Amino acid sequence: MNWLSGWLDRFRPDSKPRLSDEQQQRLRHWQALPAHDWQQDSRSTRYLVVDVEASGLQIRRDHLISIGAVALDRGVINPADAFETVLRQDTVSSTENILIHGISGSEQREGLEPAEALLRFLEYSGRTPLVAYHAYFDQAMIAQAMRRFLGIRYQPKWLDLAWLMPALFPDRYCNTVALDEWLDTFGIENFQRHNAISDCLATAQLLQVALQRAAERGIDTPQALAASESLRRRNSW
Description:
Elements: H1 2-9, H2 21-31, E1 46-54, E2 64-73, E3 76-86, H3 95-101, H4 105-109, H5 114-125, E4 130-132, H6 135-150, E5 158-160, H7 161-168, H8 179-185, H9 196-216, H10 222-236
Parallel strand pairs: 1-4, 4-5
Antiparallel strand pairs: 1-2, 2-3
Helix pairs in contact: 2-5, 5-6, 7-9, 7-10
């Protein structure tokens, strides 16, 4: 993750973000949580599928607008175990951008104070393994916001289904395939594209497919999944 550390240094705040005593206490509590055991059997693991919406696709220029997440716990999706927040924006994103994610200007202006929104995400996610499709974007946007508003270097481990799926289904597609193609292949419906929770629910179903396939191949821990993803990346270079 050295590339992310160096990249984040570009966004080091000139002064430490101002957090209330209560917020600092909550942040310290999260920092004290033990790391997740990535050798734990996937059948006993809580995975968190994450999706973000941003003001655009330029990581260095754009900023985080919302975070959505849905848990896959012991192989089961529980819609009640979900998270969604909109970070308050001083300047709302463009009309073209709003038409994509559907978060209106008023919703952006009335969102949660960013530090509070991010703390709530940390409290919800804990140290749970995080999963996304093309995770680098979600990872970078969240990490940038964490550095700016909480003053922390946020570098949890992620699993990226964009690499893991072709590792598990090498006869289907390559790693350049869009998420929608995988969803169509397995008959998974996304009811509202570019809505964070809807995207997460669809991606969580794809994760279920991945975990079932992995189990058939004896890949039964988050660490083994990460190793399969890493091997796919290396073989694609």
